[in-house]
Amino acid sequence: MPPTNLDNTLSHILSSRLSQGRLRRLTIPSPSAIDFSSNSYLSLSSHPSVKAAYLSLLTSHLQPSDSPPQQQPGHHTLGSGGSRLLDGNSSFAEALERQIAGFHGAEAGLLFNSGFEANTGLFACVPQKGDVIVYDELIHASVHDGMRLSRAQRLAFAHNQVYDAAAASSASQQGQGSKYPSLDALLQSLTRGPQGDAVRSGKTNIFVAVEGIYSMDGDAAPLRQIVECVERRLPQGNGYIIVDEAHSTGILGPQGRGLVCQLGLEDRIWARVHTFGKAMGCSGAIVLSSPTARNYLINYARSFIYTTAMSFPSLASIHTTYNFLASSSHADPLIAQLYSLIHHMHSLLADIIVRHAPSPELFRINPEVPQSPILPLFTSRARSLAQYCQERGFTVRPIVAPTVPMGQDRVRVCLHAGNSVEEVEGLCRAVEEWVANASRSKL
């Protein structure tokens, strides 16, 4: 079939992105390369005990039989057969929701096929006309898509800035400011503006959307400050905080329960989204909330209603990894190993900067010890640094605009409990070689 006018238009748009060095491409990771890129922070997807438990569960529940599935108590089909509201529900799925909610100290939970679908469904249907969604400027794209489908007003606040003084301090450290106000200033403006009476009286709901850990910068939300600010500015109780725990699940809190549980804020957060495709090593997500909110999502979340339910193998993988985390003898050593590697790598990178004194544009890191396994290496030459490391056997990825704001390109390094000290030191040697060569070439 010859190219159509539409093909020509799309090709022109892609060529423009290519000329800017921003074209996205699918790649297949080399099986021999050392992984410093994936989000599998605890390395559970390759953990021998997790794999053995998963295969055992599949075998016990998916044994071939000539009998119809409904005559096989405790047995399941390979696929779900439909949406949860039609033929895709099961006692196993409902028990899993109760298990996960109990693990995270929540009243109820509703499974979604992915974190993206959980966020789009939640934000599209819960905020009502006249409500306001206040969100961190670096909130995930899935929340943005959900908000666009919502009837609520949308307002952003500066990343992780609860109060103006903190915003000024952080902007100075990062060498840049934000065009958005602090959370406190934004909430104050809502109580004083045209809708101020409705906000102050509690008639207008304010939803505050943040992430536990931000996927590109690796920093944690100042959640306790956020909660205190919202409760002080909205004393009528019409401030509802939603925390996306995608990147904090499995690595923060007791046995990886997340940031909310780490801070003991379970009763002060309206909803949480936990996803299973990062540290949990499988796929899917759950929205934790009240039973009423769960029932509302079943009735109005289109990304839940109009999609095929997760298959039993997917549910089994989630069940297996949660059982693994629930055992402190399994989870705690992995989390401790992970944070030992985080501190070691940050120290090595800081030493590189001391030895070579590169310009901040060429190479810099966040000076604070990381709060997560995500370590961004900021550089205006992200593709060059990533390629240099890849050629030496380390899988890292350049992250450039529009995925991150213009001027904040970086190589995103993700550490895993399965990485060794020697692997971390090898990657840092490659980074140092690149920094030294790049610094000389600029002289």
What's the layout of helices and strands?
Elements: H1 5-19, E1 34-35, H2 48-61, H3 91-103, E2 108-112, H4 115-125, E3 132-136, H5 141-149, E4 153-157, H6 164-174, H7 183-192, H8 196-201, E5 206-211, H9 223-233, E6 239-244, H10 259-263, E7 271-275, E8 285-289, H11 291-300, H12 302-305, H13 312-326, H14 328-356, E9 374-378, H15 382-391, E10 394-395, E11 397-399, E12 410-414, H16 421-441
Parallel strand pairs: 1-10, 3-4, 3-5, 5-6, 6-7
Antiparallel strand pairs: 2-8, 7-8, 9-12, 11-12
Offer a few descriptive terms.
12% strand, pyridoxal phosphate, 16 helices, 7-stranded mixed β-sheet, 3-stranded antiparallel β-sheet, Aminotrans_II_pyridoxalP_BS, Aspartate Aminotransferase, domain 1, 12 strands, transferase, Aspartate Aminotransferase, domain 2, 443 residues, PyrdxlP-dep_Trfase_major, transferase activity, alpha/beta, 2 domains
Describe this structure in words.
The chain is α/β, with parallel strands linked by helices and 443 residues long. It is built from 16 helices and 12 strands. The protein is globular, with a radius of gyration of 23 Å. The strands form 3 sheets. Strands 2-8-7-6-5-3-4 form a 7-stranded mixed β-sheet. A 3-stranded antiparallel β-sheet has the order 9-12-11, with helices on one face. The chain has 2 domains: 91-164 and 178-326, Aspartate Aminotransferase, domain 2 (3-Layer(aba) Sandwich); 329-441, Aspartate Aminotransferase, domain 1 (Alpha-Beta Complex), CATH 3.90.1150. The relative contact order is 0.15.
